[in-house]
Amino acid sequence: MKSIIYSIHIDIPQEKLEINSTYEGDQEPKSVKTKKQFEKFYHILYQNKQHYADLCQADFKLFTQDADYDDFLKQMKHNTSNLFDFDVINFYKLFLFEKLSQHYDQVLYLDFDVVINTKLNFFNEFDLNKIHARAFNSDKNSAWHQSWLVKYETNQLSFDDVVKKHLEKHNMFVKNTAKQAMLLVDMQQGNDLLINTAVLGGNKNSISKLNLFDRLEKFIDIFNTSKEDCFFGYAITDLFFFNNEVVFSYLIEKYDIPFVALDQTWHDIVWKDSHYHSKLTESKFIHAIDKNFDKVFDKCGIKI
Fold this sequence. Notes:
9 strands, about 15% strand
């Protein structure tokens, strides 16, 4: 049985970076820090994934900028002109997920900022006849800070106040609301789960059910209609953007594609100091959203 593990690293030019918010405790925008940290830790992140692929007896490929990606970038920006390069890269990984399944029996995708901390073979641990990824409950109770929730529930802040003061477009609650709006266009009531696409596993059978890019234009139309219909008010709708996690979550839910949510140990997410706890060493895939790779390596005893 042929298996592949793949990742993507495309160095976005400085002038094309989205100048966004900062990680907790940082001064520079997330996009700028990401660029610097990927450059600094490129070789160890590459080797970490290559060694894991060898352990799993799988091929490994790191996709970089080439003619295929340039064509994909051009087409995506033609279809959805307001996307940043970072957004296109996140759709590209889904495109490759489908493409690689035509040549391999089993496929595992890992974001470049995912650190492997296990000798267990992912392909032996799961029934990949179902898509595997981490899914997060992204309702108000889960995604809002407790202080916002208290003020909202006691009428000290309106819903629009919370959105305008505290939320930005990448917030999980915003993305989940965008997914629900797309489902409402189809007259379907959505759940509150949002799929994070940093770790994706599947096989030829399960991935063949996605057909995301055969239906891309349809999904863009549905997304645009959901913004026009403004189901949840103007404040939050203004934050909606055509995002891979919104579309992938919509796709899984809309077409009832067989799906299993990975537990925290198979996709542990760290983005602030309190996440670097003693149990982090038990996690198998560690998604360093804050890009503090040295902290992950130190905590897990991975030599740089």
